[in-house]
């Protein structure tokens, strides 16, 4: 194929679908909904490459969804993703199917590469700090007994303090 030619819609490409499921879905039902998404990909002749199991997470902003007769805002949702290989026309059909799914609050289907491009999480390295001096506790003063203080003693003490 020449670089200037447009690829045919039957050419297999690598795609990824990211989705957020409503938190009103019971945890036991999440896998059933993800199974429906997988079934749509398989029905279109897609081959799976990788998958991220959905997990509950806090969203960057609240998402309003229609549930029955009312609108509900959620600040959490089950986020997951599936990487697969299929044709362009199958991806367009998947896009339409995801739009019709009741518990899918948001989704995105995009073209990607086969390789794993996720950022690797590495544990923060701890820096060891060595101290040469030791911390010593200051000795406590003995409790003073309150007694009568004359004005002269007070003035004398204040003048000593403020000399510097």
Q: What can you tell me about this protein's structure?
A:
With 164 residues, the chain is an alpha+beta fold. It has a domain at 13-111: Ribosomal protein S6/Translation elongation factor EF1B (Alpha-Beta Plaits, 2-Layer Sandwich), CATH 3.30.70. Helix content is 25%, strand content 34%. The protein contains three helices and four strands; from the N terminus they run βαββαβα. The protein has a four-stranded antiparallel β-sheet with strand order 2-3-1-4, with helices on one face. The longest helix is centred in the N-terminal third of the chain and has 17 residues, at 27-43. The radius of gyration is 33 Å and the shape is elongated. The model is unreliable at 1-7 (pLDDT under 50).
Shape: elongated
Tell me which CATH architecture of the domain at 13-111 applies here: 2-Layer Sandwich
CATH homologous superfamily designation of the domain at 13-111? Ribosomal protein S6/Translation elongation factor EF1B
Radius of gyration: 33 Å
**Secondary structure: helix percent:** 25-40%
**What's the pLDDT, averaged over the residues?**
82
């Amino acid at each position: 194929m020449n670089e200037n030619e447009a690829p045919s819609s039957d050419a297999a490409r690598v795609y990824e679908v990211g989705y957020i499921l409503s938190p009103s879905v019971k945890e036991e039902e999440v896998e059933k909904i993800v199974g429906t998404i997988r079934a749509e990909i398989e029905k279109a002749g897609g081959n799976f490459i990788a998958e991220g199991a959905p997990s509950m997470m806090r969203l960057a902003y609240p998402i309003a969804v229609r549930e029955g007769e009312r609108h509900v805002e959620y600040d959490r949702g089950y986020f997951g993703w599936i990487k697969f290989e299929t044709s362009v026309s199958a991806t367009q059909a998947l896009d339409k199917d995801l739009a019709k799914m009741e518990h899918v609050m948001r989704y995105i289907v995009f073209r990607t590469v086969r390789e794993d491009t996720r950022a690797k999480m590495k544990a923060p390295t701890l820096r060891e700090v060595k101290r040469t001096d030791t911390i010593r506790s200051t000795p406590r003063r003995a409790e003073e007994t309150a007694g009568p203080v004359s004005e002269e003693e007070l003035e004398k003490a204040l003048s000593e303090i403020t000399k510097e």
